[in-house]
Structure formats: structure tokens, C-alpha cells
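Input (structure):
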């Protein structure tokens, strides 16, 4: 490094991203992961070298989190949390054109698993903090940065554990920013930057049919397999009604206005179809969904079993949880009952707020044509865990993506990669948001 290195927020951010990708932090499922400790120690060493005092916290052996608080110049101002997960989903090297943990920098991109989910933001926030130390600047507000384990499963070893065991680390934080928003979403030359201000909740169910056991050669009217399959079929066929939440309504109106597409809220499906690519972003969030994903019944072909099970992956919009359960109950039919395996409420954050405006300002300072709009995520992130502490979550991990950026290169995809220019843009936007607001 030369004497200048680290003095600008975007200095060497691509190197940091590549280094982080080289730690294989694959999270395969409950309790089955690797590499988080090494990645966390690397993060902590960067912070320590810059003069900060990070805390390294393990929820279980090798499930490692790093939290650092940078004191602001106004101790009474509300604090900002930045949280970014260190783990990644698995990658099959045979499908990739580069080894997925090589962190290769080539053709203007950093390649590898986690490049956009979310070692990109781990790198941009690290680069920003490093530059503050080099520049001798401090934010006005306290900034708490959490690098967490285990987002790709349930956060039991990461965000959820930190919230339960160390809530004091997040004292004063009014909002949290993290993945799944603030990226360029180019629609016919209009550069939308959707920022997530809501996430659907998760309601995963196990449904069980109780019938009459017997010999397969003597059919009976209370066959558990038939009852279960009929219930699953009714659930799959159900037409969930449109439920327009404030975030989704604002997305449709504001994106529609920017694109010059007429919006008819009385016919949301037609409106979404007219919006093309921009409509895709809302399509999964205008109604609840219930997707059958697992079936389990029987043990021998000539035996009618007494019970049969299925699992349903349900997602409910903010405020729609009870309606979701009532609807499922009405579809189950006699002899079929349900139990809840996982219930995580939907979350939402205000979008007509100074915080949202500050994110929009920071994006427009680097891309004057940015059209910053709120949107709702179909799935979920660690924001739900931090919401338990009253922290309003925003999907804001700024990144500029080129018009021809391949969608398959995004989160969880093959040949995941992030443009070097886009990372540098993200670091400058994040620097402005954290320092100037
Ligand atoms: Zn992620």
C-alpha cells in the first residue's frame, strides 16, 4: 500500500471484497458451516489495525460475530446499525467458470460466492471505516457495525443470538441498514434504486391428516394419504387476494411514475404485467403465498397408513398473518390439522421519513438520475431479528450495476460477481449516508 491507501472510502474496496470471498464461509444448514471464524478474525484485524476496538463474539465454537461501535460526535443522536452477514450459501464448483472461492478480479468484476450476498457490503463498510481512521473523521451519530454469522439459515448463531444475548451492543440504534436494496435496477434506461422497507413474514406449517389404517386392497373413505393430498391440492390452488401494503402501493405509484406507466390500483395484476421487469419486483409481494414443499406418508405399498404429513412454506404480508392462518384452516378439510413450525412476523419501516430521504440523497449524490423507491421483500433477512429491539430495518447496501449486468450473477447464482466500479460507488454512497446524515 502507498501512503494514500485507505484515505478514500472506495480505496481498495475490491481487494477487501476479494479477500473476504477467499474465506469459504459456506453455511449448509442448521449447525453445519465453516470458515466464519477465520473471516471474522480477518474483519477484526482490519478494524484493529485502523485503530478501532472490535468485539469478537462466538455463539458456539467457530460461529463468530464481530461488533464494533464508532462513537459519534453527538452522543445523544440516534445511532445507526449496519449489519452484514459473513456466511454464504453453498456453491458447486463444477457449474462455475471460476473457482467460487477464488475471489478473482477480472474484466472489471470481483468473482465468487458472496460477491453480491453479501461480502460486497462487508467490504464497503470496512473500506469506509478504514478511510475514517485515515482521514481522522467521525460520524455525527454512533455507528454500530455488526458482521454476523448464520444469516443464510436462521441467524440462531448470528443476529438472533446477538439480539437475545447482547442487546446492549445495539443501545440507541434507531435503524439498521443491510442487504437487498440500494442496487441499480435498470428498466429501459430508467435507473431505479429500490430500497427495502418491508419484508413478508414466514409462517411454515406442518399439516397432518389422520385417517383409518388398513389393507391396500380394501380402500376406505378415511384414507390419510387422500385427505392430505386433497388438502395440499386446495392450498396450492387457492387464489390469494391482493393485499396492497403501504410499501407496495408506494413502489407501484413511484416506479410507475418514473417509467411513465399508468397505474391502476383497482387492477394490480394488470398493472404489474404492464410494468414488465419493474413489475416483477412487486409481483411476489401483493398477496400472501403458501407453497407445498414436503410430503411424507406411508411405508409399504399395500398398507394404508393412519397418518400423512406435508409441509407448507407460507409467506404473509405485514398485517396479514391472521388472515393467512384463517385461510389455511378453511382449506384443510375434516381430519387434517396444522401446526406452526416457524412463525416470524413481517416487518416494515417508514419510507416517508428523514432516514429514507437520507439514503436517497446519498444515492443521488453519486448518481444524479437515481430514482429511489421503497419496495417489499418477498423473503426475509436478519432485519427481522433486529426488529425485536425496535430497530427499523432498511435493505440498503448501495451498489451501482451496469445495464448489462447478468441477473444470474446475483445472490445465490452461478458465477456470482460484483463490478469493481459498483463496489466503489457503494463505498462512496455509504460514506456519505453515515457521515452526512
Ligand atoms: Zn444475504
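Output (sequence):
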Amino acid at each position: 500500500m502507498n501512503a494514500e491507501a485507505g484515505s478514500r472510502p472506495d480505496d481498495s474496496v475490491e481487494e477487501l471484497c476479494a479477500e473476504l470471498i477467499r474465506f469459504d464461509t459456506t453455511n449448509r444448514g442448521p449447525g453445519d458451516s465453516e470458515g466464519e471464524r477465520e473471516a471474522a478474525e480477518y474483519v477484526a484485524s482490519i478494524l484493529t489495525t485502523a485503530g478501532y476496538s472490535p468485539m469478537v463474539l462466538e455463539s458456539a465454537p467457530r460461529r463468530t460475530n464481530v461488533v464494533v461501535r464508532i462513537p459519534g460526535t453527538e452522543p445523544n443522536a440516534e445511532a445507526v446499525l449496519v449489519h452484514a452477514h459473513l456466511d454464504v450459501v453453498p456453491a458447486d464448483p463444477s457449474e462455475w467458470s471460476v473457482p467460487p472461492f477464488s475471489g478473482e478480479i477480472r474484466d472489471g468484476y470481483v468473482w465468487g460466492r458472496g460477491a453480491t450476498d453479501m461480502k460486497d457490503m462487508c467490504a464497503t463498510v470496512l473500506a469506509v471505516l478504514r478511510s475514517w481512521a485515515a482521514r481522522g473523521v467521525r460520524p455525527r451519530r454512533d455507528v454500530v457495525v455488526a458482521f454476523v454469522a448464520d444469516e443464510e439459515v436462521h441467524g440462531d448463531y448470528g443476529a438472533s443470538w446477538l439480539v437475545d444475548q447482547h442487546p446492549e451492543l445495539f443501545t440507541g440504534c434507531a435503524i439498521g441498514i443491510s442487504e437487498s436494496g440500494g442496487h441499480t435496477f435498470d428498466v429501459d434506461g430508467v435507473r431505479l434504486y429500490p430500497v427495502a422497507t418491508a419484508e413478508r413474514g414466514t409462517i411454515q406449517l406442518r399439516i397432518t391428516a389422520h385417517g383409518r389404517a388398513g389393507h391396500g386392497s380394501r380402500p376406505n373413505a378415511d384414507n390419510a394419504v387422500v385427505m392430505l393430498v386433497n388438502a395440499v391440492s386446495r392450498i396450492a390452488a387457492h387464489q390469494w387476494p391482493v393485499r396492497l401494503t403501504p410499501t407496495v402501493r408506494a413502489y407501484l405509484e413511484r416506479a410507475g411514475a418514473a417509467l411513465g406507466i399508468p397505474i391502476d390500483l383497482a387492477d394490480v395484476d394488470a398493472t404489474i404485467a404492464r410494468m414488465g421487469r419493474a413489475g416483477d419486483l412487486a409481483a411476489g409481494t401483493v398477496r400472501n403465498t403458501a407453497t407445498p414443499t414436503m410430503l411424507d406418508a406411508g411405508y409399504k405399498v399395500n398398507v394404508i397408513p393412519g397418518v400423512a404429513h406435508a409441509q407448507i412454506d407460507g409467506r404473509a404480508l405485514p398485517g396479514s398473518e391472521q388472515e393467512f392462518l384463517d385461510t389455511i384452516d378453511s382449506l384443510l378439510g375434516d381430519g387434517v390439522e396444522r401446526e406452526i413450525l416457524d412463525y416470524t412476523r413481517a416487518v416494515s419501516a417508514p419510507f416517508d421519513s428523514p432516514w429514507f430521504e437520507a439514503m436517497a440523497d446519498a444515492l443521488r449524490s453519486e448518481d444524479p438520475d437515481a430514482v429511489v423507491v421503497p419496495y417489499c421483500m418477498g423473503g426475509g433477512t436478519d432485519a427481522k431479528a433486529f426488529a425485536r429491539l425496535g430497530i427499523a430495518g432498511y435493505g440498503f447496501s448501495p451498489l451501482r450495476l451496469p445495464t448489462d449486468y447478468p441477473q444470474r450473477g446475483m445472490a445465490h447464482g452461478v458465477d456470482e460477481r460484483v463490478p469493481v466500479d459498483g463496489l466503489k460507488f457503494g463505498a462512496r454512497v455509504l460514506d456519505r449516508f453515515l457521515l452526512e446524515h
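Notes: The first strand starts at residue 27 and ends at 29. The chain has two domains: 3-180+381-436, 201-344.
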